[in-house]
Input
Amino acid sequence: MASDPSFRTERRRTLRVDRLAMAHPGDLSALAALIEEGTVRADEVVAVIGKTEGNGGVNDFTRGYFTQTLMHLLAAHTGRTPAELLRSVPCILSGGTEGVLSPHYVVFSRREAGATERGGALAIGTALGEALPAHEVGRWSHVRSVASTVRRAMADAGIERAQDVVFVQVKGPCITSARAQAAAAAGHAVVSNDPGRSMAYARAAGAFGVALALGEIADDPAQGTALLADFGVACARASVSSGVEVEADEVIVLGHSPAWTGRLRMGCAPMADALDIAAVSQALAPLAIEARPQVRPADRARIAAAFVKCEPDRRGSVRGARHTMLDDTDINAQRHIRGAVGGLVAGVLGDGRIFVSGGAEHQGPDGGGLVAVIAEVPEA
Amino acid sequence: MASDPSFRTERRRTLRVDRLAMAHPGDLSALAALIEEGTVRADEVVAVIGKTEGNGGVNDFTRGYFTQTLMHLLAAHTGRTPAELLRSVPCILSGGTEGVLSPHYVVFSRREAGATERGGALAIGTALGEALPAHEVGRWSHVRSVASTVRRAMADAGIERAQDVVFVQVKGPCITSARAQAAAAAGHAVVSNDPGRSMAYARAAGAFGVALALGEIADDPAQGTALLADFGVACARASVSSGVEVEADEVIVLGHSPAWTGRLRMGCAPMADALDIAAVSQALAPLAIEARPQVRPADRARIAAAFVKCEPDRRGSVRGARHTMLDDTDINAQRHIRGAVGGLVAGVLGDGRIFVSGGAEHQGPDGGGLVAVIAEVPEA
Amino acid sequence: MASDPSFRTERRRTLRVDRLAMAHPGDLSALAALIEEGTVRADEVVAVIGKTEGNGGVNDFTRGYFTQTLMHLLAAHTGRTPAELLRSVPCILSGGTEGVLSPHYVVFSRREAGATERGGALAIGTALGEALPAHEVGRWSHVRSVASTVRRAMADAGIERAQDVVFVQVKGPCITSARAQAAAAAGHAVVSNDPGRSMAYARAAGAFGVALALGEIADDPAQGTALLADFGVACARASVSSGVEVEADEVIVLGHSPAWTGRLRMGCAPMADALDIAAVSQALAPLAIEARPQVRPADRARIAAAFVKCEPDRRGSVRGARHTMLDDTDINAQRHIRGAVGGLVAGVLGDGRIFVSGGAEHQGPDGGGLVAVIAEVPEA
Amino acid sequence: MASDPSFRTERRRTLRVDRLAMAHPGDLSALAALIEEGTVRADEVVAVIGKTEGNGGVNDFTRGYFTQTLMHLLAAHTGRTPAELLRSVPCILSGGTEGVLSPHYVVFSRREAGATERGGALAIGTALGEALPAHEVGRWSHVRSVASTVRRAMADAGIERAQDVVFVQVKGPCITSARAQAAAAAGHAVVSNDPGRSMAYARAAGAFGVALALGEIADDPAQGTALLADFGVACARASVSSGVEVEADEVIVLGHSPAWTGRLRMGCAPMADALDIAAVSQALAPLAIEARPQVRPADRARIAAAFVKCEPDRRGSVRGARHTMLDDTDINAQRHIRGAVGGLVAGVLGDGRIFVSGGAEHQGPDGGGLVAVIAEVPEA
Output
């Protein structure tokens, strides 16, 4: 066992995960309280993933409101400016708390754990990519750029092996009308002039980039034609969003590393479709949590966070039954699917505090997506 | 065994349940095909319960469109007029196929089964109440009227014991502005001038009426104060809707009777809240169907129909986590909850063809509702 | 004057226009009453244009509900089947009564007027095109097909000169997923696989077709590249919609003809943008109606119907001020613009019974549209 | 004329009004630029009224986002804290830029003008009321409290005569669930436990309060029964909103005063209903602006701001034509009416930058509302 790094006495890091409620998108009082009482140190916060109560679409400003409030709060406690923090602390939000979903945010903070014998725990790493020119969005150079950023985030986390990575959250830039015009003026062609379509391309490139970094696909530019075309190519550990507010990819890597200590672990499983309840059990399995059919209260208390990607099946039906999500002029299709899959996963976990995000192109099986859970495991 | 009516050779009735897809709310082609091929006889159709793809609100005209089309179809095959059929064949629709819910309708038809030894199967009975004056809507006289209609539907079904009733679907009248004015002109006070509120009162009276008919509560007018006030009083076998298009209560009773034969059976269970996944297992138990976590394909093929009532918890949270359904100006709260609970139940059953209806006041636990399933049981 | 056909004594036709209210999309009781009292003869009804209270999108079933009810009503009074009537009486509906817009329908009926001296009045003609293969939708052959159908409708109306045509309403087929697949199987390429996009192409082809029939553009297939590309090409007399429910173009032509008699006249004017209130005055001018700023009650009583096409400016602003219609995930952009332009025109006319339809590609100026009004003129 | 204070040489104040565009609700860059270039001094900003692009409902967080950003901006330039500024600079926002309405904000700043002969110009005054206990909201004591605050704002503006007041904007507190429970615990009854209803009561009390301060009604508590009951009692100079975020009434008074100088003037007129286009002309008349039918560009350039209150007619029709705003489950009624009336007024002014706010109870005629315009008048 002497060669097992998990049991060597050395300095290790430890991850803390706080899942906090908010009364509205500008309410960070729960985090402020933790900081003020000393439970969380503002300069140890490395990432935030949250679910705000907007519509999740282009005109969802709850994300910007939350982010502004977060950066002001951290700035007040770190002496750094909000603008600096914005560039160094990924804050990835999904709007839309349809149905039983509850507005909340997950704060990841990490600190030195001191010298300890026992290593092997959930690790986190983050990285920010280079600013991506608009004409590269959704192309193979974008895929490579994401892959490179993922590798840096892995290094930041101290995760060496791709197999130890459980979940990668990416947020990438898209092509706004203004950026498209600038690209055209410079003689560059963009992948799409439709901002919504460019966001889909950015998500696709993000998923391919994670797959490339994790060795699931080869670095073959010819595969670029599969973006938004061959949905058989997918990465079931990638969760990607895209937004007008970023100009470079932001990456959060979560996985297991012998250089980290603590009781947190993470499971992740692909969802075959929007009814794939078994995927939740599969994600819970490595955490020693069973759902028959619902997670027991004692186990529920161990769960620190849950993340889901999903989307309305583009073929218009789920297991042969027609759905109406894609043709609804009243409710956006992503709101529909978040509500449904959120209801399913919340029912299994017994908790509505789940990050459920739509736009799952190439992130898990076509028409499905993925589910990931962080929990504390019992003391050995 | 000689005294057991289930095993006496006598004439019995049998229920047929067809769950059919529709391409749009005016598409009854699936039923038309069954009638034309002789599988279903139009004059044997006794009730239809369906889920159309409208918004489920006041301005949801998919229900009227479907009903008009159905009555024209049955008229063409029975020689009766659409207007006559409208008064004798309950057609109870819930608008809103949020998330994975699929537009469909369940056709109940009954016929003489011939002399057979084996009795004891799912039975159906229907009844239409007297026209209810607007000033009685939501009052104890309304409760009594529903109870009386439920008893007649039980008699129609040949169900003698309240304990054999599994599920009662009621659709009752509400108070439109015009009806409120007419009542006022006649010197009568109505329970509410707000049409939406009167619909809630009508649902409450329907639930109390079912409870009264089933002997769950006493015929005590003093209990009228509990309507929309004490949600501890509830009937977990009542599913009630209310609409401007009816002037009298329509009742469909489903339960088990020795006078019926066939392999159909039904289970029903209360849902404690919107996350109560265990309730689905409980409703499946009497049908010998397990969900671990999802119903197996072979069992799924036995399921003929599923019905759910649910509602957004009026206290603003589910198991301590704030939900945003009641304060959403963009999406109606009932659409939110149908999508979430529909997603949960569909995930367990592996099928989106579920009748999920909101407005569950006094129909199962407060903040929850109920779930009911019809399935064929295997040959003994 | 002997050579002026307007003053020759000969048999003429006359148009009757009834603008009727409905309580819901299945309520044709106002027309039924007119038919029953003999004011309107069912077999003289040649076209209906209406505004139903759905969302105006793909899942707006109020149009189908109204149409089914109309065809059943006319069938009951003509001895023809609903299916036959559907193919011969254009019923063109726009869903969406946003803001002050009021659900209503305009019934056009025509009859022989007997021999009379005075000719020259509003005329109507209708025509149905050939079934259009999916791969021709949105191409120059579609443009030609519409033009041919418009010419036949002009002939039906007895309008010889293009300059006498005031307003042409077209409803054309689009490319559903099923039709696209059938085309592909037959080796044909379609203009777009996106149904929404194909509807836009169909509207564009309709507008070009009207322009071609009216001699505003040449029959030059090279101009096909201007479809949905060069919005400087536009026809300010064309109002076009597209729907999945038709397989051939339906055309209604309205204009002035010496072969018709009566007091109805029509005016039509292009709208430069969504704020172009002066266009309403321009459309009213040939009807001898002034708006300063609102039409006077006596003149309002002369107005028989009003039609508007409009759309959210694709450039994202109106007269330099940013609008938010195109980026709103909650409310469809067409609903936004109908509400705004409907409010403007209703304010000028003093009446919310206006047919306001979105999707105005090439129908009037880009970012604007057109407005048309039918009114009785005073006796000479 | 020697006694006319307008022509005495004395120190006067002057009002500056900037109507600024925003790219999103957190974008105050236009104001920041004016401050940085010295055109506006942050400590001279006395009030902001704006239109943000949320849904205008309970879950519209664009208002909070804008306000937070504004207060941070002013804090950075004044040395005061955001919390202090929040209590002293009224920032009254209406969410919802339906149709052609454009997101914008109007910044009111005032400064000493130096000694000048010519007095008589648009004046502004603000005041903050005492914190209002929840059980007083919507009662006569609330009316009196608003009246008192209006009088203080008049004094702040230097407006002595009620007849010189043109427009009063009030924002008042409502009764949240938490405040209702606290009131009940203290033995107090609240006017309504329904937060939405309490907001309507707060708006009603605000309108009555303005009317009382302006001498339009008497201080008679018996009139309290008219709140939300007798809509014949109305103040056509009151524009009132209510929100959960304030605990005391905020008041902005605009009117004419000899103690102010400059070229700004204001007009205001009641709107009889949602089609009352003549009201716009009436509001423009004192500004020497005509609309025939649209304001000419030169006059449009003189307009500094426009404010409208409106609401969907509670009787379900406008001038006899049924509207569908109140029964729409998809789009909130206030969004409908803002879009329609906004479209009308924008058409007359030729500009979509209009503050249009719903909830017009007792603010102008029932079913209508009011319209107010600020403009520069030409040099004498």
Summary: The interface with chain B takes residues 55-60, 177, 316, 324, 327-330, 332, 335 of chain D (CB under 8 Å). The longest helix of chain D spans residues 195-213. Residues 75 and 202 of chain D are 30 Å apart (CA to CA). The mean pLDDT of chain D is 94.
